[in-house]
Design goal:
The structure is a single chain. This protein is α/β, with parallel strands linked by helices. It folds into 2 domains: 67 residues, no CATH class; 227 residues, Alpha-Beta Complex (Spore Coat Polysaccharide Biosynthesis Protein SpsA, Chain A). The protein has 11 helices and 13 strands. The strands form 4 sheets. It has a 5-stranded mixed sheet with strand order 6-5-4-7-10. A 3-stranded antiparallel sheet has the order 1-2-3, with no helix packed on it. The protein has a 3-stranded mixed sheet with strand order 8-13-12. The longest helix has 15 residues. The termini are far apart.
Length: 360
Amino acid sequence: MVTLRKRITESGDVVRQKLIGGTVATFVNRVEVPNASTVGDEIKAAIESAVAIKITCGTCLGYLQTLNQTTKHDHAKIVEKLAAEISWPDRMKHAARCVMVSDLIHPIVPKPEPPPVRQREVGTLQFIIPYFHQEARSDELRWCIRSIHANYLGDAYVTLIGDKPDWFIGHHIPKKRLGPQSFRRYRDSLSKIDMIRYSADIDADVMWCMDDCYFLRPFNRDDFAQGRLNNRKPGLGSDDWNVMLRLTAEAQIKAGLQQLDFSCHLPQMINRDRWHEMFERFELARQPLVWESLYGAMFATDPQSHKGFMLRWQGPKEPSKELEKLEQVWMLNHTHEAWNDALRNWLASRFPEPSKDEKT
């Protein structure tokens, strides 16, 4: 036997490779990494004492041991890991587990200092959310509303137009969905937003928002006043969305406006008079177009790119692996395909407090 190579891994393991009968075989000699701290032991003792359980899960114990082997610890990552892995009491919800773990480990691994709070605005901003219950995947709306109340720098007043779930006790303007017709989904959404022109219950300046959008940091109305550019070229598909993109680009050119795409799936400030001007100018009751792009092309003065401002997840992700990105952006949005238990649990831990619009 001839030793071909020996190396030491980052974990301290010694890896040897030997040639045996023409085949390379790998042997790993485990090397114990000395403890650099007692954080894992302290967390284990704190949890077992407070919750009166015995941690026996090998994965959990192994993870706690790794915490002993380093002196730098991330509070949020530890909370997410332990809340998901440990065998907690059956009826304990994930959000409650996250809060409890966070409080338990705070004396050992302190929570990071919150960012400086911006000056709160005086006054109320109305948030308009068109809602059709059958298209909702789950309870995305709950976390959208919680994120509004948690982060708006002022008094938020949420109005649902259309349907409402049983748990919602806030302001609701009932409106039935439009019947079968071409571009039905987009016509229905437009008809709900268009109520800002006619309803005495809707303010002159409102923020329009979709139920699968989540605000991740403190904001005021100015942060969403200009819209955000997508700069996507219309596709060649025959589906309603690509047809609308092409028709919208043609309408902008015909009207002498810049050919801009503001369809980023982001919340946007809407003024009633400006909305009326746009709606009538482009005859949106006759042919629905991408109104965000028309409104932005008409009224935005200094639009910025959506990049770095929002995350849009097209498929399932594990939020605990995306924490760095989530901490850097203002907004999170996702497609239906991206909704899963991991995302819901993360939102529940991020926004654990029920809003004033929820039945408790």
